[in-house]
Design goal:
It is built from five helices and no strands. α2 runs antiparallel to α5, α3 packs antiparallel against α4 and α4 packs antiparallel against α5. It is mainly α. It comes from Corallococcus soli.
Length: 118
């Protein structure tokens, strides 16, 4: 059972999955915006968003498959979501960046119960 492996209830798992999907979309859109502004694919900001999008996708798969690694992927999403939220909030002052910060912070908050569950 998934709840036993992650230490979380199904509702918490569902919230983490939904937040991961939304954050993945926001990170992919953020990467597209940065590339359209001329930043290269190896720029730190682009790489951070790519890592976040890929981790979100992995987290969804791990949670859906009830993987024993799902607590670890949720933990990484908690950490990386916090980093993306901070970077998006501090580095740009436009509505798209603030939306990305909101979605990344939501990811961190949604996955946190899975990380710190007993």
């Amino acid at each position: 059972m998934l709840g036993a492996r992650t230490g979380g209830a199904r509702t918490e798992v569902s919230r983490c999955i939904a937040a991961s999907l939304q954050c993945q979309t926001s990170c992919e859109e953020g990467m597209a915006r940065l590339k359209a502004q001329g930043l290269p694919a190896d720029d730190d900001a682009v790489r951070l968003l790519r890592q976040c999008a890929e981790l979100c996708e992995l987290n969804v798969r791990a949670l859906q498959k009830e993987s024993r690694l799902s607590r670890r992927t949720a933990s990484l999403c908690f950490e990386l979501g916090s980093q993306v939220a901070r970077a998006a909030w501090l580095e740009a002052q436009d509505p798209a960046s603030h939306a990305l910060a909101r979605d990344a912070l939501h990811l961190a908050r949604a996955c946190r119960p899975l990380v710190f569950a007993a």
